[in-house]
Amino acid sequence: MNGKLMWFVKNGKDTIRSIKLSLCCEKETEILRKKGIGELRRQRLRRLLEEAFHEGVRLSHTDLTLILLTSKSTLKRDLKACGIR
What we know:
The termini are far apart. This protein is 52% helix and 20% strand. By secondary structure, the chain is an alpha+beta fold. The protein has one domain. Strands 1-2 form a two-stranded antiparallel ribbon. Helix 1 packs antiparallel against helix 2 (37-54).
């Protein structure tokens, strides 16, 4: 079970760039079963940020809330729990 997403990110004033992100991975079923939906969401958040970093792109809070289907307040709480600003 691997899902990929092509996401378009505004990179600079007038440049739009596409990146590939992983929506899910094999070990997520186990994470969900053992640690719950919150930890699963934080694992996905970490992976998305790492993949974007390797692509040379920063994802905005809006990007992340849309990809993760969550609210900005939940995203901010998860970023804080992960030690990310």
